[in-house]
Amino acid sequence: MEYNVKIDKVDSEKVSYDSSAECLEITLEEYRHVTERANKYDNKVNIMITFCGIFFAFVVTLLDKLTELPFPETTKQGIVFVICIIIFVIISICYILSMILLVIGLRPIKLHRFNPKLLIDYSLWNKPSCQANMLAVKQYTEFVLANNDALEKSYKKIHTVTILMSIVVFFSFLEYILLIFA
Q: Which of 31, 78, 118, 176 is 20 to 30 A from 124, alpha carbon to alpha carbon?
């Protein structure tokens, strides 16, 4: 099946439309979206810190139970004892790495912002508004791209912390079950 589309040419000399204001609005909306993502990142870091703080009490309880284990007398007890030690080392390493990444994540993300001085530097006060709009569009577009890159790097840290804390939670409950039966 074939489709044919006929496009009538518009005489560009007769049509005069400035879309710079719409371009600026679209760019500003995307910039607002990036700023909201930065705020959400801060919230996620705070939530993860709270979760890690609460879970720290559970990890300390595991350590307390681990230190109360009697020295193994049989091979079976020895195997369980060694497994408990290895699991606790894994928990500790993942937890410490998570906390380090969260502390690093507390640093503010440096987002680029528009400098209105550019409008003066380019002497745009006596030129058509489309020139000022397009300068702003250019600047905001560059900032959106740079800010998105910075946010992606930061979100990767949160993703890594989430994976590490999932490992901590899994192994903590496994350790807890082993310590009950040890």
A: 31
Q: What is the pLDDT of residues 63-118, one digit of tens each?
A: 999 988 888 889 988 998 999 999 999 999 999 999 999 999 888 888 888 887 87
Please choose, from the candidates 59, 136, 61, the residue with its C-alpha nearest in 3D space to the C-alpha of residue 91: 59
pTM of this structure: 0.74
Question: Do 45 and 158 meet the contact criterion of CB atoms below 8 Å apart?
Answer: yes
| CA–CA dist 24, 20 (Å, integer) | 6
Identify the pLDDT of residue 5. 46
CA separation for the pair 106, 21 (Å, rounded): 37
Q: Tokens standing for 159?
A: 């993703």
Label residues 145-155 b or e (16+ Cβ within 10 Å = b): eebeebbeebe
Q: Report the alpha-carbon angle 16-21-24, nearest 5.
A: 140
Q: Could you tell me which of 87, 15, 69, 40 has the C-alpha nearest to residue 181?
A: 69
